[in-house]
Amino acid sequence: MSDQTAAAGGPRKPRIALMGEFSAGKSTLSNLLMGARPLPEKVTATRLSPVWISFGTDAPYRVDIDGSTEPVSLTQLEGIPVEETRVIRLFMEADILDVCDLIDFPGISDPNMSSEVWERMLTEVDAVIWCTHATQAWRQSEAAVWDSMPDAVRENSILLITRFDKLTTDKDRRRVFKRVRRETEGMFGGTFPISLLHALEAGEDYDKWDASGAGPFVNHMIEMIDELTKIAARTDKPLYNYADGVPAPVARAVAPRRVQRPLAGDKAERERPAADASAVNSPILRDS
Fold first, then answer.
1. How do the domains of the chain map onto residue ranges?
2. Which end of the chain is more exposed for a tag (fewer CB within 10 A), N or C?
3. The pLDDT value given to residue 41
4. How confident is the model at residue 268 (pLDDT cuts 50, 70, 90)?
5. What element of type H or E holds 171?
6. Is 106:50 a contact under the CB 8 Å cutoff?
7. Helix, strand or coil for residue 93?
8. CA 68 to chain centroid
9. Rounded Cα distance, 64 and 87, in Å
């Protein structure tokens, strides 16, 4: 399936998947990235087919597994037949959607949903932001799915250790972070501990924003989108389809404008230091 909403004659945007197990924080992450809930309050994203979100004001629609489309109502999304739907297309006017598309995947280990529901959308993915719950981080079921990802996707992806505030001591935080880093070495472009709820609550308070772990993560994500934009400018095929590495560059693309954090004020315009991909110096690891 090609991107039916790409601007005519222009390069496609990078497509970043939000993935993880049930209750790992993907819905909160999408809220943080877009500054608003993409789905109505009562809708549970984990009970839906993958939701592909792009910039715009177009009406939502679903794409059947045979490629046919039909309009859908935001208030009746949970009535859409999951097994018969490849993807639900939604549109929002959010800063981050100016520079990339987001694809919100259902939980990977839902016993009530066949893995085929989300596996058939992997071919549309350039990179992944994978959420793993801090109190049970990087389960075998997560590792099994990630092992099947091509290197072109893995090296441009981010691992978020979410709900890091649930680990109440500095010793536990460092222990979990070091274990996850050890078990996923070389599998992600960056690994970051984060409290997504604290990031949402930070508002204009930059100390709280950085203490939540959001600062290093967002700075790294900006760099990731920049690199993916250059790659997307030279190929229509998402990176999942490149088992042997990304296509060679033919021309340097124009880098996307800086993605601002939600609710950002004038301070967001200031240059901030680049994030260390290992997040070793993340404030959330130093808080006790």
1. 15-244
2. C
3. 61
4. very low
5. helix 170-183
6. yes
7. coil
8. 26
9. 7
Q: How far apart are CA 170 and CA 158, in angstroms?
A: 23
**pLDDT tens across 4-57, in order?**
444 445 689 999 999 999 889 998 999 999 998 888 766 655 578 999 999 999
For 127, phi then psi, to 5°, come to -155, 165
For the whole model, what pTM was predicted?
0.85
Closest CA to 202 of 216, 191, 192, 214: 214
Q: Is 225 exposed, middle or buried (0-12, 13-18, 19+ CB in 10 A)?
A: buried
Token pair for residue 35? 């500054």
3-state DSSP assignment of residue 17: strand
One-letter amino acid of 80: I
The whole-angstrom separation of Cα 128 and Cα 118 is 13
C-alpha to C-alpha distance for 220 and 249, rounded to whole angstroms = 22
E-state strands within 65-157 = 69-71, 85-92, 101-104, 127-133
DSSP element (H, E) containing 63? strand 61-64
- Contact call for residues 122 and 1 (beta carbons, < 8 A): no
pLDDT at residue 283, rounded to an integer: 63
Residue whose C-alpha is closest to residue 103's, from 117, 113, 112: 117
Q: 234 Cβ partners below 8 Å, 6+ apart?
A: 247, 249, 250, 251, 253
Burial 59-69 (b: 16+ CB within 10 A, else e): eeebbeeeeee
247, amino acid identity: P
Side-chain half-sphere of 262: how many Cα atoms within 13 Å?
22
Candidates 29, 11, 20; CA nearest to 212 is: 29
Q: What angle do CA 118, 10, 96 make, to 5 degrees?
A: 55
Question: Chain centroid to CA 109: how far?
Answer: 18
